[in-house]
Amino acid sequence: MNSFHGMGKRRGVEPGSPATGLRRRGVEPGSPATGLRRWGIEPSSGPCRNNFFALVLLLTACLAMPRLAQAQVTPQGDAGGLMISAGATGSGYYLQYGARKMIGITGFVDVDTRRRLGIEAEGRFLEFHQTENVPAETDSIGPRYHFNMGKFQPYAKGLIGFGNFNFPYNYATGRYMVVTAGGGVDYHLTRRIHLRLADAEYQYWPQFTFGSMTSFGVSTGIRVRIF
Fold first, then answer.
1. Residues 123 and 14 both lie in one domain
2. In angstroms, how far is CA 29 from the centroid of its own chain?
């Protein structure tokens, strides 16, 4: 018994104290990390990436297969009902947390039909004009509705996905559900190239650590039809 008591003393832990169990789990008693883990946040851990673009490819393939089968029996004049486009935009956003105004880039894929319905998937990375090292990233997917007015194509969309948020000075990271409502307008520059004149989004983070958070912003860029 005396030898065990001495080993505990040499390590700075009283045998049988609650601190012993905490230190076995790699958490220092009384540290801020203990409280953060109660919120489900890992201190100083990097953002967890998902298989977002793999999901986009899977959905694209699922939509394309019926069209390819139909093309064998559809007259040539009626073919080409499925249109797949990809593009990139520059984005300016306002985040409610700390009233931050940030700049980033967005990549997106649109899968549309001639019946005005489609799917949009996007990934946004707000990495610039940040303070206290607080970047934010979102991956979202959902339906969109579009129609043509001459060379202009207005659209509306509703997306759902996840957001990665880095707290000040890399102290902790969190991953949360994000719900997005938005819309915009494209301009047909050529048959394949469209200008995304404006894309506006309002995002709601209902499960954010310190209560629900909102963000909104505007993007502009280019969209290229793949097929």
1. no
2. 34
CB-hemisphere CA count at 13 Å for 39? 17
Nearest C-alpha neighbor of 168 from the set 62, 74, 95, 63: 95
Q: Are 170 and 43 in contact (CB under 8 A)?
A: no
Torsion of CA 38, 39, 41, 43, to 10 degrees: -60
Model pLDDT for residues 139-166, shown as the tens digit of each residue: 999 999 999 999 999 999 999 999 999 9
Tell me, yes or no, whether 68 and 16 share the same domain: no
- The Cα 43–Cα 144 span in angstroms is 37
Alpha helix locations (H) across 11-72? 18-24, 32-38, 52-70
Q: How many C-beta neighbours within 10 Å does residue 98 have?
A: 10
The structure's pTM equals 0.66
Q: Which amino acid is at 122?
A: E
Per the rule left: phi > 0, alpha: psi between -120 and 50, beta: everything else, 116 is left
